Amino acid sequence: MSHEGIKLVSAEEAARSAKWERPMSRAAVDPAKVRVDLTRGTGVEIEWKDGHRSQWTFAWLRAACPCATCVEERERTGRPVGELTPEPKLALPMYKEPARPREVVPMGHYAVKFVWNDGHETGIYSWDYLRRVCGCDDCAKARGDVG
Ligand SMILES: [Zn+2]
Ligand SMILES: [Zn+2]
Q1: Is pTM, for the whole model, over 0.85?
Q2: What is the pLDDT of residue 85?
Q3: Which ligand is nearest to the CA of 131?
Q4: Which CATH code is given to the segment(s) 16-84+99-143?
């Protein structure tokens, strides 16, 4: 007997995909204003057409890179989206420059690409993705990230 074609979805997986496939209104994923603070290096702020505001630090966005390689790495290690990779403990700690984009490239009307200072640039951050990973308390609660 073959199980091919049968997809077993665990409760945990179902909850995870529900979180990512939560329906969003058009205004919720359409930015009215995008502020990328490259000068001070603080991060990105988006004001959405539905009036919601999201904010992320560059370090968080780098660690939430949506490219296939980073997604695969997070799935393998169980590292949550946006959580930094733990630094290896070295005898002589080296200074690592905090994540910061060298360049911000708009991708049509739907996304933005960051060229990071560590050379990584394969992640395309769609507005939809960014809204789903909004870091505010309300959104974190809605996603079930916090109690
Ligand atoms: Zn990546
Ligand atoms: Zn939010």
Answers
A1: no
A2: 74
A3: 2
A4: 3.30.2020.30
